[in-house]
Write a structure and sequence with these properties.
47% helix; globular; alpha/beta; two-stranded antiparallel ribbon; eight-stranded parallel β-sheet
Length: 349
């Protein structure tokens, strides 16, 4: 089962220590589902597969676990009660699919642990086999992800969307995922300060005990995509006791170093980074457009710089693959001296 702790502030630090000072997050989910044959041309995007092909969801989780991931994100990024109801499902069916997203990830973790146990010859003195620590993170996408109009990449929801409306939109989904058996809730691709505030207030209002992370996206390396300063958004995450890590996702790799620097000005919480490939999403065409996308080797070349800047958790987002994650894992594990430095930093935070 997942890792459990009563102290939210130590949750991520304890996990990082178990991982050796740094942790690996998985990579692009929809990219892999499509590689396995899924048609994601749907407002539900990857969440569609929770209905049509849950076996593919499990397969993708396993792909990333086999690549070395310590954290796998559920297929719930674009899974909302409102979105499922729009497809004709009942509220009960929608809520069950949210729960099922976590169950599938937990099943994949169990399969991986069983395989590692069978394959490993590295027995300890008492006959047990050490397994790689793995967290299941329940993914929560932004309101813009539900709209499926690209606004998660602009943060522009219009004047009609208030703090209260955002809280009510997310409330039931967060309640369900918080009680689903996930180890942590991943609030991802947060495009503006308003939604970050909505999440922080929800966690407090609902007395959520499951730890969480906040991850923002940027298109200029200084601000989140709405234009709100990254340092201001990170400050909201820092002030929320349930948030145990803060970071950046679905952002071109070239912007990550500067964003880490901005986040460090606002918080001492562990920083996570899982950028996209560097390609650009065209909301009108609903596809990723080749631009400055980087190959796995180039992507991994950034990791050392990000680590030196202060990041402790590394992964990939849209258009990255298990090969990307495998390369990141190897790069970090091959730098034993760097790992020792990271472990020292964790122990002294």
């Amino acid at each position: 089962m997942g890792l459990v702790t009563e102290n939210a502030s130590s949750f991520m630090l304890d996990f990082l220590k178990r991982c050796g000072g740094h942790a690996i997050i998985d990579g692009g989910f929809a990219t892999e589902l499509e590689r396995h044959g899924a048609d994601l041309n749907d407002p539900l995007w990857s969440a569609k597969c929770l209905i049509t092909s849950p076996q593919l969801v499990r397969r993708v989780h396993l792909d990333y676990l086999e690549a070395g991931a310590n954290i796998i994100l559920t297929a719930s990024y674009q899974a909302t009660i409102q979105g499922f109801e729009a497809k004709g499902l009942s509220r009960e069916e929608a809520e069950n699919l949210l729960k099922r997203s976590v169950e599938i990830a937990c099943e994949a973790r169990e399969i991986c642990e069983e395989k590692c146990t069978k394959d490993s010859l590295n027995f300890t003195e008492n006959g047990s086999i050490p397994t790689r620590p793995v967290l299941v993170a329940a993914s929560v996408g932004s309101y813009g992800a539900f709209l499926a109009d690209g606004s998660e990449y602009s943060g522009d929801y219009g004047d009609a969307i208030t703090l209260g409306k955002l809280k009510e939109f997310h409330r039931r989904r967060v309640q369900i995922l918080a009680n689903s058996g996930a180890d942590i809730i991943a609030f991802e691709t947060i495009p503006n300060k308003l939604e970050a505030k909505a999440y922080a207030e929800l966690l407090q209002e609902e007395n959520i005990t499951t730890p969480a992370w906040f991850s923002f996206n940027s298109k200029d390396g200084i601000n989140v995509v709405s234009g709100d300063p990254m340092v201001d958004c990170a400050s909201i995450a820092d002030s929320c006791k349930r948030v145990v890590a803060v970071g950046i996702n679905c952002t071109p790799p070239r912007y990550i170093h500067g964003l880490i620097t901005s986040i460090r000005k606002a918080t001492e919480k562990p920083i996570l980074v899982y950028p996209n490939s560097g390609e650009t999403y065209d909301a009108d065409r609903k596809e990723w457009v080749p631009s400055t996308g980087v190959v796995d080797e180039d992507f991994v070349s950034y990791v050392g710089t990000w680590r030196e800047a202060g990041a402790l958790l590394f992964g990939g987002c849209c258009r990255t693959t298990p090969n990307t994650i495998r390369a990141i894992s190897r790069a970090l594990s091959n730098k034993s001296s760097a790992c020792s430095t990271l472990s020292f930093n964790v122990n002294n935070k």
